[in-house]
Each structure stands twice: as structure tokens, then as C-alpha cells.
Amino acid sequence: MLQKDTKPAINPRGWVTISLFCGIGVAKLFSAYDAWRPSSPIWWLSLAIGIFFLVSAIQIYRNRNKVGATGNRLTKFRRIIIVALIGLTGLYMYYPFELRKVKKLTLIPIEGVNMAIVNQVSELLGKKFAFPVAVAPPSQIKIEAFNKKRNQIDADQVVDKWPLPPTDEMKILMTANDLYSSSSKWNFVFSATRPGGQVVMASTAQMAWGQASESQMAQRLYRSLLRTIGNAVGLRNSRTCAMAFANNVTELDSKSETYCGSDETRMRKAGLLK
In what order do the strands lie in the sheet with 133-135? Predict the structure, then answer.
């Protein structure tokens, strides 16, 4: 005689919770793998958060149908997870981690970029930063991420496929073509960065706005790259100074070329500024 299955049905909200924790856990593990070298505190924190969420998801899955005293313990466990999440998020966002060291920065001209602008940007960066700034010979690599409909290059595709340099080096690809980012909503971007900041692609196209001279274009690109390099070594965006986000060239022209307060102190402590 067939008997009706009396096993409690799985709560759909439990599956949502499990999926959410698994997703965050996997995302943080990938962040730890791709974005930072293993000696970085941010790498270890990303790894810890990823493992924490995956273990939490497994624990919830194993206890998904339990009720009574066990269910009460599970509820307490979830509360602990929430408190721990808030604590880890606060630590991740506000703790002043040691900045990433950079031993060399190389500008790589591609796609027929104006070499006079590249050389001026190199000179400006060389005066600002303590690490060597070099200009490589123009690259003959053909960029296959050009979108004919938009008449722009998908910078995300380029930086993701470009060979990854050592963790203490940066490569900045310089192009005359306009850029967009397939992972963002913007119509254009001044530059795009691979997670970890080791590969950047920057464009001179928007810098020509307003019939700017070569010198003005170089100055604009330099200001844009100050924020890009700051992000790459571990600084966060701000509303003022060099780490301020510029939506357009007008805002870029009004930006400061100086890192503010604690940002400059951290950069100097890390030996990144002259």
C-alpha cells in the first residue's frame, strides 16, 4: 500500500537564502582569486567572506526541514550570520588596508594614438609617482573588440583578454578610439580597468572635446588616470580631489591633481608618490 510522503516541504524562502549566500560566496572567492595577490589583506578578507557564506549556505541547506529546538538554533544561526555580515562589510569598506605596491608602470600605444600625447602623459605621471613610468613601442596587436554600430571599442573585452603582468606592475593601453564598457550603463568611458588594476585601457578620444590642444588632452588624460591608478592600488572614490569621479570632460577639467588628506598619506607611506 502506498503511503503519503509526510516529509515537510522545503520552504521556498530557504532556497532563496541558500542561493543568495552561495552567489555571494562564489563571487567573493572569484574576487579573491582574480583581483588581489595572496599577500594582500583584501585578498584574505575576500577569501574569508567567500568561505563564510558558502559554509553558511551548506548549514542552512542541511537544516532546511528541521523544526522545534533545531529550528530555533537555526534562527539564531541566521541572526549570527546577519551580524557577522554587517561586521565584515564594515571592515571591508572602511578599514584602511595597506595599498598595493607598484614597481613599474608601462604605457602601451595602440590603434594609432598620438605619440606626443602619450609622451606628455608619461612625463606627468613620472613627476607624480615614485615608480618608473615607461612608454613601450607602439603595439601592432589588432583590437577585435570594436563595435561598428557604436563606433567604439568595448574596453572590458580588451583588458580581460590582455596578458596579465606581474602583480607589482601596471600596463595602460592607450588608444585614439572612443571606449565604452559593456558592464556599465555609460555611453562612453575615459578608461576601463581589469579587476586587480594591473591592466587598464585609456582613450584620448573624449579628451579632444572643445578643440583641445595636445597639451590640454594630455592634462585631461593625466587627471583621469590619477583616479584610475588610485583605484588600482586600493584607494576608494571620493567627491573631491584626485579620486573624484568625473562624468564628462568639463568635470575632468575642474578636478584637482592632488590626492586628499589620508589618501596622500597612505600613498606616501606605501612609497608610491614622490
Answer: 133-135, 104-109, 169-175, 199-203, 191-193
